[in-house]
């Protein structure tokens, strides 16, 4: 259950090194954007432009296309300034990220979702933190950019993770964390090689709303190298586009259900204590506070939708727990 071996993902032709403090004097960065559908083409081009404006000398932008030949051709011909490569591994986000790492040449790999656009100063804020050799992983703020300008009135801020964004209960200042939000995160390349990259046993495949590949990786990395730091910084931020189809109660509950299934898969791979370490505080402190706010007379007078948000908190928690309980050992086959 607590096996710390790597998932057997070959990333590049160089071996993992026992010591991970081998960065060059200057921190150079490979930004990796993974894409599987042309539906996000407009936002992805905006993301690429924003990244290119922030690249320093020797930095690079790599776009990985996940088993979509038409999109691969389009990206290769139209994304000037980016190196476009196919996902040469198993279909899904884990395989695509590993393909990006294999193609990368710099000491820090920054992963950016194809529908997330960096704000000014994003890359430099990340770069500055990797001047410390003890830092292996950096997570940033991920701010929802709702199609239609605002979140549904019933949507609780505590569930921002449902749409791949930050949420109430996260740190608001620089802090040690278990794992970052995958939409915008940076990992030292030697750490990726040493731990073996992302496992395809968890993680999103196409539109199926599963996840936790970065959670499993960070737990595995911490098991192998407890001296390395995983930190959150509020100084770097991206705007993560949330389309209308992800603003429905149906998607909310489906995503919560599959989060529970994903957490069960992580527990199977890395152990229950580590897989649920951050969730204990979230369930015991963050969600009860959300419920109390939702039903308080003052909140209801100020925001009539507060009770609806409280109901969504209960529904989301129930769906997540149900997904965890019912996942059993069938996650890997059913997720694909």
UniProtKB/TrEMBL annotation:
<dbReference type="Pfam" id="PF00535">
    <property type="entry name" value="Glycos_transf_2"/>
</dbReference>
<comment type="pathway">
    <text>Cell wall biogenesis; cell wall polysaccharide biosynthesis.</text>
</comment>
<dbReference type="InterPro" id="IPR001173">
    <property type="entry name" value="Glyco_trans_2-like"/>
</dbReference>
<feature type="domain" description="Glycosyltransferase 2-like">
    <location>
        <begin position="30"/>
        <end position="192"/>
    </location>
</feature>
<protein>
    <submittedName>
        <fullName>Glycosyl transferase family 2</fullName>
    </submittedName>
</protein>
<keyword id="KW-0328">Glycosyltransferase</keyword>
<dbReference type="InterPro" id="IPR029044">
    <property type="entry name" value="Nucleotide-diphossugar_trans"/>
</dbReference>
<comment type="similarity">
    <text>Belongs to the glycosyltransferase 2 family.</text>
</comment>
<keyword id="KW-0808">Transferase</keyword>
<dbReference type="GO" id="GO:0016757">
    <property type="term" value="F:glycosyltransferase activity"/>
</dbReference>
<feature type="region of interest" description="Disordered">
    <location>
        <begin position="1"/>
        <end position="22"/>
    </location>
</feature>
